[in-house]
Each structure stands twice: as C-alpha cells, then as structure tokens.
Specification:
Structural class: mainly alpha
Largest sheet: 2 strands, antiparallel
CATH class: Mainly Alpha
CATH superfamily: MetI-like
Radius of gyration: 23 Å
Number of strands: 2
Distance between the termini: 47 Å
CATH architecture: Orthogonal Bundle
Strand content: under 5%
C-alpha cells in the first residue's frame, strides 16, 4: 500500500519534462556545469603536471613546497577550499578578489564561477600530481638516460620520450577524475553558481517536488558521465600499443559488460 501511494504521488509528467523538454534556464545551468568541468580539469592537469615535475626536482625547496601543496589540498575538504578561495581574502584581508561580474572578452562571467573554477582546479591539481607522478615513475629510468645519451636535453627527453609513454598510465585515472569533476561542480552551488544542482534547488523551492526534480538531475548527470565514459574508453584504446585483438572491449562493449550478470565462479562439476 505504501509503495503504491509513493508511486501515485510521483509526478511523472514533471520528471519527463525536465529530461525531454528542458527550459532555457536549465540548459544554461547544464552548459555552466560542462564548461566549468572542462576548464577546471584542464587547469588541474596543468597544475598536476607542474606539481609532479616539481616533486622530481633536484631543488629541495621546490619539492618541499610541492609536498605542502599536495598534503594541504588532499587533506582538507573541497567545500572548505571553495569557501576560503571565494570568501577568504575579503574576510581576512578586506580585499575582494572576485568581483560580482567579470568581462572575459567572450562574455560576462560571475566572480563565483571564476572562483569555483580556480578552487576545483587547485583541488584537482593535487590529485593529478599523484597520478602523473605514478605515470612518470612507471617509465624505466633507462629511457631518460638513453635519450640524453643521443644528445637530447632533459626537457626534450621528458616531452618526447617519457611523457608519451606515461600517458598510457595517466589517461585512465585522469578520465575517472574528470568523471568525478562533473559531479563535484554541484558543490559550487554553495557560493551561488547556477549549475545543474543549484538550478534544481531553485525549481524545487517553487514547486516543492524534490523527488522529481533531483531524480531528473541525476539522469542528466548520468548522461554526462556516460558520454564521457564512452569517449574515455575510445581514448584508452587509441593509446594502447597492443593489437586490436588484445585491447579488450570497446566503449559500448564495456557498458554492456557492466549490465551483464557476473559469471558464476562455483562450478557444478562432479
């Protein structure tokens, strides 16, 4: 009886309209989620690469600074980092780092969006640093030594020899990090960024139907992450040096594999 009552109370028309007939405000929030994710991830990868290289530096103060950065970022909640980046300078120093709106040439962007991108990029950089460090560490030291022996500088050897080989190790977790990034943008609603989650909160506050609204938002997040997972699987196959027969299932095959029941490991042989 209770389940029948819950199903009857669910407004399916509202749910489906949020998926198949989104309004312009929702599409704007969707676009905000996408471009914040892309820019923050690009910034995070750049910071992560710089951090990983700093961690391998012969200059110990640089290694120390990198260690402090990685430890501080990985050891504190992201929402606290967002708070201090957006509000910290004004509260502690009386300086406004992020104006209400900022003209970036291609259009006007709110200061909260800029602060959100910076916060997410700084956070992502610390995690990408460890991922890239592991990728670089997987390449044999002899590769660098061989490149130097034929006349390359350390910078040329890193760019042309080591990084391309490390990319095969870096790309899978990098893709997973971006998948997580798209969902983590929901935390920016805390500082007033109108992305998917914040826009859903606005709608919910007017119609008081949170189940339908947030269920639709979950579907949109699932759609975004699924599309990226397909592209990620394609990219991994392109970077895999193995033959086509050894690369495993393709993007759609991987999704089908997740839906297929696991094979039983207990045989019934006598």
């Amino acid at each position: 009886m209770l389940s029948a009552h819950v199903i009857a109370a669910f407004d399916s028309d509202l749910f489906w309209s949020r998926i198949f007939e989104p309004d312009s405000v929702f599409l704007g929030a969707l676009w905000t989620t996408i471009y914040i994710s892309v820019l923050a991830q690009l910034g995070g990868v750049t910071l992560g690469l710089a951090s990983a290289l700093a961690g391998r530096s012969r200059f110990w103060p640089l290694r120390l600074l990198n260690g402090v950065y990685v430890t501080a970022i990985r050891g504190t909640p992201l929402i606290v980092q967002i708070f201090f980046i957006y509000f910290g300078a004004e509260l502690l120093l009386g300086v406004t780092l992020f104006p209400k709106e900022l003209d970036v040439g291609a259009g006007v962007v709110s200061g909260a969006v800029i602060a959100g991108i910076i916060a997410l990029a700084l956070n992502e950089g610390a995690y990408m640093s460890e991922i890239i460090r592991a990728g670089l560490g997987s390449v044999d030291d002899g590769q660098m030594e061989s490149a130097i022996s034929v006349g390359m500088t350390r910078r040329q050897a890193m760019r042309k020899i080591v990084l391309p080989q490390a990319a095969r190790i870096i790309v899978p977790p990098l893709g997973n990090q971006f998948n997580n990034m798209m969902k983590t943008t929901s935390l920016l609603s805390f500082i007033g960024v109108l992305e998917l989650f914040a826009q859903a909160q606005q709608v919910y506050s007017t119609n008081f139907k949170p189940v339908e609204i947030f269920a639709a938002v979950a579907v949109w997040y699932l759609l975004l992450t699924t599309i990226w997972s397909i592209f990620q699987a394609y990219l991994e196959r392109r970077l895999d040096p193995a033959g086509a027969d050894d690369r495993g299932p393709g993007p759609f095959g991987r999704i089908k594999g997740r839906l297929r029941p696991a094979a039983s490991t207990t045989g019934g042989a006598a």
